[in-house]
UniProtKB/TrEMBL annotation:
It holds the Pfam family DUF3283. The lineage of its organism: Bacteria, Pseudomonadati, Pseudomonadota, Gammaproteobacteria, Vibrionales. This is Pyridoxamine 5'-phosphate oxidase. Gene3D superfamilies: DNA polymerase III-theta.
């Protein structure tokens, strides 16, 4: 079953993008390409409180998955 992501509503597209950004930020942290301040600065860029909360939850998810403290 394939899903055309371009047909999703804008809010769902944004959640996918935030999830990707969280994954990449945690990966950078794990690879020592960035410090923990990266997570704070990325979260601060997000103005919408619900989106920020979603991003922070995604960061926690990827920290568990990638075994990052």
């Amino acid at each position: 079953m394939s899903i055309n992501l371009s047909l999703l509503p804008p809010t769902e597209k944004n959640k996918i993008e935030l999830d990707k950004q969280a994954s990449y930020a945690v990966w950078q942290l794990k690879q020592a390409k960035a410090g923990p301040e990266l997570l704070l600065t990325e979260a601060e860029k997000i103005r919408n409180e619900d989106e920020r909360r979603f991003f922070e939850q995604a960061v926690q998810k990827y920290k568990r998955i990638m075994s990052v403290a």
